[in-house]
């Protein structure tokens, strides 16, 4: 992420604050954490972050609560969220009454929510991890490191290594499939409104997965440390490669596509030509390994089908 506050998932909205994935570097733990680990590992775990919660599920542990539970199916989708998980509200202003009543033995958080740490530590030990941090660097390796950190932190090291191995094997399979169809360069966006979009680039998760799959990002300019740049759609004309395709990810605001259909600016863009523009199901662009795998699968399937 940049020097700005954590970016909004959608234009003029704060939905992303509930979602930004985990961290990297030294584990930041609160009082009592070592005791919980010695006792056999924490089992009643609350997560303030989608990426951490998703990874926790893949390690075989179901959180007792997460932040912004009701939006999971909108932004994360996979893995499915089991029933019975409590909703803590928005990650930056969680419901401490609910959190306290659940008696967690570990709370997963990120550096973005550092201001809440003293209050969280009064409830339970905390484990803070971060992928999207101002020190920059490619996100995908950080997500791998954070997965290892979380797995170690909850006593599921073998499960963490298995998750990483499955992810790498899946990437290898997708890369082999795509090598047979030789896709063109791709520009990846989320529409904010009919005039603006977030375009994904280095060092973000989408960009890193493109590279891992042997694909080329048509938007060569680097972004902020979340891995995006906010642009006016007219700037898509800066993509000079005639072969390039534009892929937008859901959710798309309801009025965007109807407005674009009437927009001379949009119609003049080479990327708006038939066969050059698609809308695909979304995956969490600020997530971790599960989100990278969902993105890779959706993209690979689409590129094979449209080759």
Automatic annotation (TrEMBL):
<feature type="domain" description="Fe/B12 periplasmic-binding">
    <location>
        <begin position="44"/>
        <end position="307"/>
    </location>
</feature>
<comment type="similarity">
    <text>Belongs to the bacterial solute-binding protein 8 family.</text>
</comment>
<keyword id="KW-0406">Ion transport</keyword>
<dbReference type="GO" id="GO:0030288">
    <property type="term" value="C:outer membrane-bounded periplasmic space"/>
</dbReference>
<keyword id="KW-0813">Transport</keyword>
<keyword id="KW-0410">Iron transport</keyword>
<dbReference type="GO" id="GO:1901678">
    <property type="term" value="P:iron coordination entity transport"/>
</dbReference>
<keyword id="KW-0408">Iron</keyword>
<dbReference type="Pfam" id="PF01497">
    <property type="entry name" value="Peripla_BP_2"/>
</dbReference>
<dbReference type="InterPro" id="IPR002491">
    <property type="entry name" value="ABC_transptr_periplasmic_BD"/>
</dbReference>
<dbReference type="InterPro" id="IPR006311">
    <property type="entry name" value="TAT_signal"/>
</dbReference>
<protein>
    <submittedName>
        <fullName>Iron-siderophore ABC transporter substrate-binding protein</fullName>
    </submittedName>
</protein>
<keyword id="KW-0732">Signal</keyword>
<dbReference type="InterPro" id="IPR051313">
    <property type="entry name" value="Bact_iron-sidero_bind"/>
</dbReference>
